[in-house]
What does this fold into?
Amino acid sequence: MINISETAAERLKEMLSQQETPDMFLRLGVAPGGCTGFSYAMGFDDKESDEDIYMDIQDMKVVVEKENLKYLNGLEIDFEESGMSGGFTIHNPNAVATCGCGSSFRTREEAGVPDKDC
It folds into this structure.
């Protein structure tokens, strides 16, 4: 299960409404890299495959590749305002280590492939 706060969902729905391609949805994923081993991927997409799992979260279509769900199960996404800026925050109960900016992580079972430049 993935949780998206009401604040984050409002922001995402606003961003989705501005997309030129109809029927876009939120795709969440994980890729090797980052300072800690895995990096989060969050973006809009309009293509699904047999490898995807579909979820309805906050009345929004969210898609995750089956293989990535083990890293994202329990994930919490929020949006926080900070002065004149703001951004999405991610809390992942599967992460045992994260980088300073919070966009990279590793799990107890898998370390991923950290970037050499970090």
The helical segments are 6-17, 69-72.
